[in-house]
Design a protein that fits this description.
This protein is of the alpha/beta class and 247 residues long. It has eight helices and 13 strands. A seven-stranded mixed sheet has the order 7-6-5-8-9-13-12, with helices on both faces. Strands 1-2 form a two-stranded antiparallel sheet. A two-stranded antiparallel sheet has the order 3-4. It is globular.
């Protein structure tokens, strides 16, 4: 089946499901800062164990997406009315419409496989010049990349000297664990928690970013927003950590 048609079909099915749930979950108990819509509660999400109150019924945002968006708004210069060149790797569908509307052609989505992205990109070999992007956003991608350190160095190279990057990964261990000899999907599932992951990141993830040349600031939802804000917008431990990187 044609890849584009498959993606289109998935999007249509997702839109129908989201519309149905948006009606069922009508209310004001939760608020999504990305689509700016209320719902009675968020939907359950996850496998094998589902997280309650996790996904927006309207735009499909998860806890980490809403945390990132609020951080964008309140703690960065992203929306200061100055044009910026932005690289968004493996673009999440909830982010693309508002960012594309705000930044236009200077907002570039990139992916190695997805036909929905603006450019096909291997992040270990980025085909853009040094100091090109004002902002780079890459979330939950590096755990899929064999040479993640090279990818981090590439992000550092193409980021402007006064720019910033958010390079987010799931932290699932005390110390980063990887074994390149594990290539079988089922063995990767056992070792890393997912069939297409090549490592589990630990608390030493920040050291890899620093080795690539970044200065790193870490933020957690519980340290950034009030209890009331976290409850209203569904910010839980599943929101993860933000790694705000500068040169």
């Amino acid at each position: 089946m044609n890849t584009f048609f498959t993606e289109w079909s998935k999007q249509k099915a997702r839109a129908i499901v989201n519309f149905t749930f948006s009606i069922i979950y009508t209310g004001k108990g939760r608020y999504c800062p990305i689509c700016k819509k209320n719902s009675r509660k968020f939907l359950s999400y996850g496998r094998p164990l589902k997280r309650e109150d996790a996904i927006c019924t309207h735009c499909g945002s998860l806890e980490r997406h809403r945390f990132v968006w609020l951080y964008f708004q309140k703690l960065t210069n992203l929306f200061n009315n100055k044009q910026k060149k932005i690289l968004h790797v493996a673009p999440e569908s909830c982010f693309v419409p508002p960012l594309k509307k705000y930044f236009g052609k200077d907002y570039i989505t990139a992916d190695l496989y997805s036909p929905r992205a603006d450019v096909k990109m291997d992040i270990t070999d980025i085909k853009y010049p040094d100091n090109y992007f004002d902002v780079i956003y890459c979330s939950h991608v590096l755990e899929h990349v064999q040479d993640d350190k090279k990818a981090m160095r590439e992000f550092h190279r193409v980021l402007k000297k006064d720019g910033w990057a958010m390079l987010l990964v799931p932290i699932t261990a005390e110390k980063t664990y990887e074994d390149p000899s594990i290539t079988d999907p089922e063995e990767r599932l056992k070792a890393f928690g997912q069939r297409d992951h090549v490592r589990c990141y630990g608390l030493d993830y920040i050291d890899r970013l620093k080795e690539a040349g970044f200065t790193v600031k870490i933020a957690k939802a519980e340290d950034t927003f009030t209890k009331e804000e976290r409850e209203l917008m569904g910010l839980t431990k599943a929101s993860g950590e933000i790694y705000y990187c500068t040169k």
